[in-house]
Amino acid sequence: MSKIAIVYFSQTDITHRLIEAFTERVKELECEIVNHRISGSDIIDGRFVNNDIFQYLHECDAIVFGSPTYMGGVAAQFKAFADATSDFWQAQTWSGKLAAGITSCTELNGDQGFTLGYMQVLAGQHGMLWVNIDSPFNSPLKNVNRLGCHAGVVAEGFDGSVNEVDINTAKYLAEKLVSYALKMKG
């Protein structure tokens, strides 16, 4: 059984709803999953501090990063988490794990690609293997990737609702990640 973790921040719950869809699909595929929604109590003097979640992340097969796109990048709360991973970066503790990203914004574009790019670089610095969306833009065959982003799941939700195709894309990413994790375990 693969162990998957999600570390994310969500203010308006749009990113949270994508994470819920991802989680639901992972559970349907009978994998162990732990979600950690970054909260203010995790951040002490500007630094993410949560040894329990880090211990789980060290033991899992895949880590999904999630953050809304704020001002063209990840939220400060997610950045505090990312900065805290530097404590074990040199040891390459996460090397060989799978990684993926989920983001949302109130605009159709909102520079979400930069947010996913940041997550990809974070994963790359840790020696992780990035899982992307391998579906053409708004594919009628798969009903995913409405906004045409291949780097990860992106969603636009101005009024607090999330488009069903964006939800499907989160579920599709879950299927891909679990499939790859199982192949890697042999």
Explain this structure.
The protein is an alpha/beta fold and 186 residues long. It has one domain: 3-Layer(aba) Sandwich (Rossmann fold), CATH 3.40.50.360. 37% of the residues lie in helices and 22% in strands. It has five helices and nine strands, in the order E-H-E-E-E-H-E-E-H-E-H-E-E-H. The chain has helices at 14-28, 51-59, 76-84, 112-125, 164-185; strands spanning 3-8, 32-37, 43-44, 47-48, 62-70, 73-74, 98-105, 129-130, 153-156. The strands form two sheets. Strands 1, 2, 5, 6, 7, 8 and 9 form a seven-stranded mixed β-sheet that branches. A two-stranded antiparallel ribbon has the order 3-4. Strand 3 and strand 4 (47-48) form a beta hairpin. Helix 1 (14-28) packs across helix 5. The longest helix has 22 residues, at 164-185. The protein starts with a strand and ends with a helix. The mean pLDDT is 92.
What low-confidence regions span 5 or more consecutive residues with pLDDT below 50? none
Q: Overall mean pLDDT score?
A: 92
Number of strands: 9
Helix content: 25-40%
Instruction: Please tally the helical runs, counting DSSP H or I stretches of 4 or more residues.
Output: 5
Terminal CA distance reads 11 Å
What can be said about the biggest beta sheet? 7 strands, mixed
Shape: globular
CATH class: Alpha Beta
CATH-assigned homologous superfamily: Flavodoxin domain
Q: Topology as H/E string?
A: EHEEEHEEHEHEEH
Given the helix and strand composition, which structural class is it?
alpha/beta
* CATH fold name: Rossmann fold
Strand content is 15-25%
CATH architecture: 3-Layer(aba) Sandwich
What is the number of domains?
A: 1
- Radius of gyration (CA) equals 15 Å
